[in-house]
Specification:
The structure is a homodimer of 194-residue chains.
Chain A: E1 2-7, E2 12-20, E3 26-35, H1 42-60, E4 64-68, H2 76-95, E5 100-103, H3 105-113, H4 120-130, H5 140-193
Chain lengths: 194, 194
């Protein structure tokens, strides 16, 4: 499966394409960053990022797009821009019929480093290692985009197994309730027949 | 000038088209709301809102798009969705070469009611009155979209007059500083020639 990871941002938007095979083997297909000038108009900056993301989608044909889930704990102004970028990226994916998955920064950190509180350097080190790269991807946004894609590849099978298990449990619970109900009805009818 | 006002939202996105003539006369061209199901997938919901906004742009040919500026004081989850919608709306405008203006809720309230702290009902009442509508536009998101468009029409000339005045003041300040500098140089040279 080929995943396009996106670390959304107006000034720097990280882009990383990763192929996942069987087991946990992952390969870096491409990595980069789309930049827009800080003094540009917001709509033009959004359009520039959207154009870049769409070019990557058309070039690399990902099967799924993984986007970092934005939180608003940090700087309000930059979070709004980041949310707007994540919106135009999700739109571009939806218009191409590509599924979109959102992962939180701590899910990404945990997936690649084993700890949800790993620092940026540790994430970059692990991404460089698991993808077998000669050098660490730069800037950090590019490394984060690759980490997102790897996180998606490693979490997706787990998530779908979990969803299957939950669906099976719900089915068993439904069947059990139905049996209880019919047993009660049986008792009721039995009582009335006396 | 024709303005498309957008009150961004995922569940309900308000749309209002207003024509402004000379003086303060304003006319309602169209008003409505784009809805998406709360249980839908985020990318699909963003695409549905974007499709609706683009249909309105293609139908009504606005000259400018006025969008409510999003703040993150409120519910984090809904603010993120609102920011993402405002991003896809700004993108649609940019791709059509339409200028985009952002106005804060208090700017809108002040423009239509005279007070930045007016409540929703007061804004709806004033929008209904200034546009000469037979009935109040519903839901509130639709009325807010019209209020945004009216706000833009009434603020735009003021804003451009203000920008002109500021540019003129800056020019005068530059000229004054240049005169001071050359006067100082003149004194310095005069002293050297003594």
């Amino acid at each position: 499966m080929r995943v396009l990871g996106i670390d959304p941002g107006l000034t720097r938007c990280g882009l990383g394409v990763v192929d996942g095979g069987r087991s946990r083997s992952v390969t870096c297909v491409d990595v980069g960053v789309a930049r827009t000038p800080a003094d540009g108009q917001l709509p033009d900056r959004l359009a520039a990022v959207a154009d870049a993301v769409e070019r990557w989608m058309d070039t690399h044909h990902p099967e799924v797009v993984a986007i970092e889930r934005v939180f608003s704990q940090h700087n309000v102004r930059s979070v709004m821009g980041t949310a707007q970028v994540s919106g135009v990226v999700a739109l571009a994916a939806a218009r191409r019929g590509l599924p979109v998955a959102f992962h939180t920064p701590s899910e990404v950190k945990a997936a690649v480093s084993g700890s949800g509180r790993a620092d940026k350097k540790q994430v970059t080190t692990m991404v460089t290692r698991v993808l077998g790269l000669d050098a660490a991807p730069k800037p950090a946004d590019a490394a984060d985009a690759l980490a997102l894609a790897v996180c998606h590849l490693w979490r997706a099978p787990m998530a779908s197994r979990l969803a299957e298990a939950e669906a099976r449990a719900a089915e068993l619970a439904r069947a059990h309730k139905a049996r209880l109900k019919s047993a009660q009805r049986g008792t009721g009818r039995g009582g009335g027949g006396r």
